[in-house]
User: Fold these one by one.
Assistant:
Number 1:
Amino acid sequence: MDKQEFLQSYLVDRHKTDSLKWDGLQQKFGETDLLAMWVADMEFKTCDGIVDAMTKRTRHGVFGYSCVPDDYYEVFSGWMERRYHFPVKKEWVRFSTGCVTAIAWMIHAFTKPGDSCLILTPVYYPFHNVVTNGGRKLVKVELDYNDGYFTMNYEAIEKAIVENQVKMFIQCSPHNPAGRVWTEDELDRVLAVCQKHDVLVISDEIHQDIILGDKPFVPAAVVSGGRYRDIVITLNSASKTFNLATLLHSHIIITDDGLRGKYDQFASALNRTEVSIMGMVATKAGYTYGGEWLGQVLDVIRDNYRYLKEELNKRLPRMTVCALEGTYLVMIDLRSYVDSEQTLDFVQKHCRLAVDYGEWFGQAYKGFIRLNLATDPVYIKQAVERIVAEAGNLS
Ligand SMILES: Cc1ncc(COP(=O)(O)O)c(C=O)c1O
């Protein structure tokens, strides 16, 4: 299937389908007539294999309590092994209704009220809230930012860990919104710092399958031959990969027996840790049949990114479109054209766009916006035209 056929078959108009991105505009942005490029889901229908499997299950008509069959684990492990050299044993896997929920559980299972948890900003804003709302101390270390490219500052990380007696590092890999796919060397360095200071690492790898460039995604649990497994807990899901967010199904992978025992003890006090049957059916089908569909989605995202970057670089040469190695969420630095205090006015009132604002991820990023590229190329074009035209009106 070529790109045009793919777009014709899978793009959908999500207005009036209870979609947060479109039908939630009024609530989030106070108006409805905006081009929605915010929340991190896609404008594409999921792959046929998933729809077929869910349809079959729906026809069965019974949605009672479920267990997870062995072949679920085999399919999941196969995907992880083929793509990331990380065969996942059945006994390592636990489930939750989402990665953010799982982060909250990890905080409660492994830290005490008042303990320090580290995040690297700018980062997905629920990482901030889940720590503070959970009554833990939030420790933020800035990623280094240089001309649209983010890197980790290991010295600053170590200093913050020591000064605050950090107990847990909540890692985002690939990183939203920095767009980085961390290399094995980068992960090795930050994990070594955590190991040295006894810091447990919760590695949120929900974007693992959205890899756009040459850098391979490396799960934290396989870095340096698995050297850090006794300090790493991995969270992932097929939800970003196949656009399944509201099926509420994600994985907690704990390879270390001691950590898993501790988690299980905590989980025994939770009301519900069984699976959602539809989440399980969809995830298994995606990992079985979804590879080709995913490849086509990645091509659309790559083309959208290339177009956005080339056009903005050409027409607004002082605007920085950040590098995008992974995820479908790109940061754009508007500051050379728009006063940071005027960003919302420029983007929403003039460009008529609904985006995520840089300061939601970290105060230092006021003046940046994050755009969602898992969308219709026509929308990307419209967004570019509006930004260029309105930037022209400013001068
Ligand atoms: C890094 C990261 N973690 C978690 C989530 C949300 O995951 P869930 O819906 O499974 O809680 C997102 C969504 O954008 C994300 O970017």
Number 2:
Amino acid sequence: MVKKSTKIYIVGAGISGLVAAKTLEAQGYCPVLLETTDAAGGRVKTDIANGVFFDHGFQVLLSAYPQAQKHLNYTNLKLNRFKPGALIFKEGKTQRIGDPLRDISALFPTIFSSIGSLSDKIKIFTLTQTLKNKSIDEIFASAEISTLNYLKNYGFSDRIIENFFRPFFTGIFLEEELRTPSRMFEFVFKMFGEGYATLPENGIGAISEQLANQLKNSEIKFGHRVSKISSNKIHLENGEVLQSDAILVTTPITIETGEHDLNNLGWKSCDNLYFTVEKKTFDEGIIGLVADKDAFTNNLYYPFDQTVSGDPILSVTIVKNHTLNEKDLVETVSSELLKHCKIATKSFLRKYTIKQALPDIDNLKKELSPNKIKVSENVYVAGDYVLNGSLNAAMASGESAAIKLMEEL
Ligand SMILES: Cc1cc2nc3c(=O)[nH]c(=O)nc-3n(C[C@H](O)[C@H](O)[C@H](O)COP(=O)(O)OP(=O)(O)OC[C@H]3O[C@@H](n4cnc5c(N)ncnc54)[C@H](O)[C@@H]3O)c2cc1C
């Protein structure tokens, strides 16, 4: 088969679709990406307004992700690093927990904080070491229990779970009960231990931009919504039908009918509010957590080098399910920030509500077995939802689906 004229369509130009295209291009193929929106990157997006970068939801690139190391150029992304650990706000007190081995300034605050017992702090250290020696393959082959039970079984006290693990991992898993499978906890904890949480200088969307810019022989057709696929046909919502030799789908479809169905899957959501504040109350590069179960505010940070008319910007994430309208949410969060964190907001800038932020799935995987990647004749699947909700998984799934597709061609 002549590679250049082989008609390969990729449904979705999110991170998995972009990596799939990059992998296909590397072997001489010229895929076409069909993307329903007007931009590449899917859930990894940043708006720019008056020189300020607004990420669509707070997310971080963990520099230790093996797939990110393979597909991204960190130097060109100009990554800003967060300090390991967090600043915890609880009952009017502010305490710091950190990794003294990588940031010596965290040594005393960590030892003397009342966030957990000394035994808890030693256990954090031993868990970090244990997971350093456990491979990612082993992690995803381990039995799955809830993260909460995992932490309890490991012997962590309720105090450190409530003061640190629950707020920290609520922000990562986008759910408050810590019911997310322990495989994800181990994977994320390992990644935090082996690298840094980072953000590109131009916001998280710079990752999408970098991947899209690497494509030289692919075409992205924006505003093309796929409604149904069969073995060699793609039906677009506008009635057009495209003939194809192979289809790589990066968004949930019902295999039997070939119909696109995003709602078939459970999703976790969040709100992200941006404010200006009078002054920074803690350093950039530190993630603040509100460890009060009733608070709407989960985490907050000052985006690196971002100001509006000289006022610093604060990004706040809300994970709690709620029915508040924008005005009430902004008021509630502003008063929480004052009460728990002693932060006075000056003006509200914008809100992003991301209803389908992370897939709510279990039986999390590092990779799909090849016979699960090909779901029917000429149809291959990728996307974080087939593995686990992370940038690493999106990239891994896109790459392996492209490889499987090429093998079959
Ligand atoms: C708020 C938030 C916080 C997160 N935090 C982190 C984090 O800290 N670290 C981390 O590693 N990951 C995080 N993630 C997860 C990470 O962003 C995702 O795992 C990853 O972006 C998924 O990429 P994807 O290509 O699998 O899916 P998507 O990004 O969903 O891409 C699918 C693409 O398909 C398009 N599409 C959908 N339906 C159709 C159709 N019918 N026809 C054509 N095109 C279609 C969509 O528009 C989209 O562009 C977070 C995500 C969010 C939203």
